[in-house]
Structure formats: structure tokens, C-alpha cells
Amino acid sequence: MESIIEISDLNKSFGGLIVTRNLSLKVETGEFFGILGPNGAGKTTLFNEMTGFVHPDRGKIIYKGENIIGLKPYQIANIGIVRTFQLVRPFKECTVMENIIIPSVSPRMKKKLRDHHELNKWVKQIVEFCDLEDFLNKEVESLPYGILRKLELAKALAMSPDLLLLDEPFSGISEREIEPLSRIIKNANNSGTTIILIEHKLREFMKLVNRILVIDHGETIAMGTPLEIVNNKVVIESYMGGEYNETS
Amino acid sequence: MKRKNGIIIRIIILIFLGLSFFVPFIIKNAFLLGILTIANIYAVFSGSWDILSGFTGKENFGYAVFAGTGAYFVGIISQSFAIPWWIGVPVGGLLAMGIGILVGFPTLRVKGPYFALVTLALASVAQDSVSIFSKITGGENGLAGIDFLSNSSITNYYITLIFTIVSIFLLFEFGMSKNGLILKSLKVDEKAAEALGVNAVRYKLIAFELSSLFAGMSGALLAYYYGYIGPDLIFPLSLNVIIMAVFGGTGMIIPAALGGYTLMIFSQYANSFLGSYNSLIYTGILLIIIMLLPNGIFKSFYKFFALKEGRHSNGEHH
């Protein structure tokens, strides 16, 4: 199999705080890859580095054979690496449909959707894929959080990403709302999108991913299949230890 | 994307447009017609402020600089030779656009309040420059001797009316297009938009260029109308244009333009009616309206009708 993204020896510190340390990672095309780690382990920072929001101090991020470090966030999105954020970030004062149109008219999608007709079809397709038909013309202020989570995913999928980075897509929603959202994410992976997932809701996380990287203090502490990870002593210690420390 | 504009609103706009063409047949008084002519130009002032600041949230506190570029270009050139308005207006607009590029390029790249601060500073630098270089600019006295738009108040009215309708139509079309939608997304959350492939700097620059182009053109047109240009006409614009756009309602072009149009008429009338209490009463009324209708008076009006119609048509579906 071919790797879609290959990160080698990535380092980043903010002042004296090291947030990424000698991190290396390879994700194969089509994989559903998971990243695990206690709060503050550097998971979101890694996403920020991969999407150009934060510039690493050292190291390489090779996407489809090219180093993408130094590219701006919008450039990275346009070559197919699309992320979501921990908190939903809908475009207020706009309807659900308008929220989906914004990524659909990006330079990346303009190449794929040549006219008005194709654009409408694409938006409709995304809306159906994410189960948002009933909310199409609603302004986002009026929507419950669970729907906004779906919209967040829909916006990212409207970019037709090759690599989708999901940052805690299940946070803040109820158990009942997790299942349908999880199904949409799984479908996206089945239809060819490589996904990297950060998530604290472990039950759902373990069901979805096929390989896991565990990081703490910005560095790799384990890598393996879900089964290997749940039986890994270092992981259990770090994960639990981290949480105990926070509460004490 | 289908527009949600209601039928009622369209009819109202068409009626007003139709009426505006008949105004010279109804109003024979040259003074009143003059007020409406200026109001036409002010509609473009506040409408073009809106395309950048109302849409992207990047407040331009130095609008006078861009309108002034067009106006002073016409004024200064006219000291040497007469330049017809149909050349002076577009060239004035292009010059203002040039200033826009110089200001926008460094300041719109950085996030935060830098753009607003720089435009604010620029306005006072420009005002000082007008005094310092008074040999060229005429200083406090301004520059007279600009060829009048025409010798007939009726022709003046029609020239500005057509200029205004075309300008506002173009700005409105841009604002309501997908480009306008992207500008709005920048106002709400620039980072989220960038994560979805939007080149934020590029879009903000485009909006700013459009805004300064129309600012420069309408500034030049104002100079031709008065046959004169001076700091008294230009520098109060920085603040006034914001008040007018906010009063009308931002982010939709037409409400902001109507804000400029109506407030211009109102302030001219207030001047002759209320005398020295003018500005006190004027700002008092403004404050009350803005407090009651924070969305702006015409935008609220639009939303009211759009909502009413929306409910109506929903009812028909069920």
C-alpha cells in the first residue's frame, strides 16, 4: 500500500514548552487512523502542524510525495487535507446550505464542479450524505449542537478531502447522537477518504480506527492495532496517570 | 444558490426606482433636487463602505481617504486644465484603488485590528497633508474651479441617479453572489474559512479594491457636482459613512445605500429646519433608532417582510 502522508522527525516547541518531539508517522491511503493521548499531549497541535496553522520547527510532512511544510492553511485544504475543529465553527448568519456552499466553491472544488448545475448536485449529495436534508434552509443559530456537529463534518466533506482530520467529532453530543454521526464518518472512509481521528470517547474510537498512535508530551509512546493498544501497559499508565495527575 | 429575496421587497424597490426617474417632473425646486442629487452620491458612499466593512467585518475608519483621492484628483487636475467628468470619475476611482492596494496589502494580511487602526491613522495623516500641502490642495479653503457636472440641475440629477443605480447594482450582485458569501464567512470565522480552502487575504483585498474604486468614483463625482472640493466635504465622511451604513443595515448593500440616501436628505433638511440644534437632534434620533433596531432600519424592514413571506409560503406547502 501507498502512504498518503508521511511525517518524519517533527519537532515544535512554544517557548520552552515542547509540544511535538521527534514525531514520525505514516498513514496509508484509505486507512482509518487514530491518535490517542491525554489532554495536552499535542494531538491538536499535530493537526495544526499538518494543516499549516502552526509551523513546525524541524521535520518533514510529506503528503502525496511533496513536503507541505510552509504551505498556508487554505493551500493545504485545496490539495486535499481538510480538518475539523474541536469546537464546531459554523458560519453564523448563514443557512446550512450556504455553509456547505462555501467549501464547495473553493479552488479545489471549482476544478471538479464546472457549472452551477454540478455545484447544486454536489451540495445536495453532501447534504444527503450527512443527513441534513431537514435543515437545509435553516440559519445555523437555530440548530442544536448535534446537528452542528453533522454540519461541521459536511463542510469538511464538501471539500472532497483525500485526507480528513477529525478533531474530537463526538465531543459535546449525547450517546444517541454519536451513532448516526459515527456511521457517516465510517461511510466517508468506506468511500475512499483516508481519515485521522482524535477522540476521547474510546468505545466509538476503538470501533472506527484500524491503527492507533498514542502520544504524550508530544512524543510517540505506542503504535499498533486497537487490540495491541488496549493491552499496552505504557499506554494505560500514561493515559490513566495523566488523568490522575490532573485531578490531584 | 437561489435568492431568498421576497416578491414584496422587489416590488418596493422597483416602485422606488421608477419614482426616482420621475422626481424631476415632480420636484421643480432646484435646491430640493440638489439635495436628492447629493443623496444619490451618498448612497454609493455608504454602499461601497459596506462591501468591505459590512461583509468582512474589516472596519474602514478612513473612508474619506479613498473618496478624497478621487475628489482631490479632480480638484487638483482642474487647476491646470479641464477634465470631463466621464474621464475624471473613473480615473479618480482607479487612483483610490491604487491607494487601496498600498494600504490593504500589508494590513489585511495580519489578523486583528491593524486594518482599522491603519485606516484611522491614515485619515488623520491625509487631513494634515491637505493643510501642509495647501499650495496644491487649497488647504482649508479647498479647490474651486472644477467644471460643473452640467449646467442643469435635472441633468445632474439623472447623471448621479444612473451612476448610483449601476454602482449599487454591481455591488449588490457581488455581495449576493458566492463571493459575497465567502466574504461573510471571513467576518464570522476567518480561520474556519481558511481551513475550507478560502484564501482570506485575497478575498479581503478584492472587497477592499471594489470598495475603494467606488469610493474614489463617487468622491470625484461629488467634486464635479459642487464644482469645488475641500476638507469640509471630504473628512467628515469617514465617520458619517459608518453611521449611514449602520443606520441602514450592513451586509446587504442596498440597506446601507438607503441609509446613506435617507440620512443625507434628513441631515440637509434638519439643517434648514432646526438650525443650531441640528446635530444634537440628528444624533439623538440616530442613537435611538440604532438602539431600537441594531440590524439597521432597512435591513430590519427587509427581514420583517422576508420572514412574513417565508411563513406564508411554508404554510402553502403543508
| CATH fold topology of chain B | ABC transporter involved in vitamin B12 uptake, BtuC
Number of DSSP strands of chain B? 0
Shape of chain B: globular
The dominant shape of chain A is globular
- Name the CATH homologous superfamily of the domain at 3-91 and 164-247 in chain A: P-loop containing nucleotide triphosphate hydrolases
CATH architecture tag of chain B: Orthogonal Bundle
Quaternary assembly: heterodimer
Count the DSSP helices of chain B. 15
What is the terminal-to-terminal distance of chain B?
23 Å
- Average pLDDT level of chain A: 93
The radius of gyration over CA of chain B amounts to: 20 Å
The helix tally of chain A amounts to 10
Average predicted confidence as pLDDT of chain B = 91
The major β-sheet of chain B equals: none
Notes on the structure:
The complex is a heterodimer of chains A (248) and B (318). By secondary structure, chain A is α/β, with parallel strands linked by helices. Chain A has helices at residues 43-50, 73-78, 96-104, 107-112, 116-129, 145-157, 175-190, 202-208, 226-230, 233-247, and strands spanning 3-14, 17-28, 32-36, 58-63, 66-67, 81-83, 163-167, 194-198, 211-216, 219-224. In chain A, strands 6-7-8-3-9-10 form a six-stranded mixed sheet, with helices on both faces. In chain A, strands 2-1-4-5 form a four-stranded antiparallel sheet, covered by helices on one side. The longest helix of chain A is centred in the last third of the chain and has 16 residues, at 175-190. Residues 242-248 of chain A have low confidence and may be disordered. With 318 residues, chain B is mainly α. Chain B has a single domain, classed as ABC transporter involved in vitamin B12 uptake, BtuC (Orthogonal Bundle). In chain B, helix 2 packs across helix 12 (237-248) and helix 4 (85-107) runs antiparallel to helix 10 (200-226). The model of chain B is unreliable at 312-318 (pLDDT under 50). The A-B interface holds A 51, 53, 72-74, 77-78, 82-83, 85, 89, 91-94, 97-98, 101-103, 105-109, 155-156, 158-159 and B 1, 178, 181-182, 184-185, 188-189, 191-200, 251.
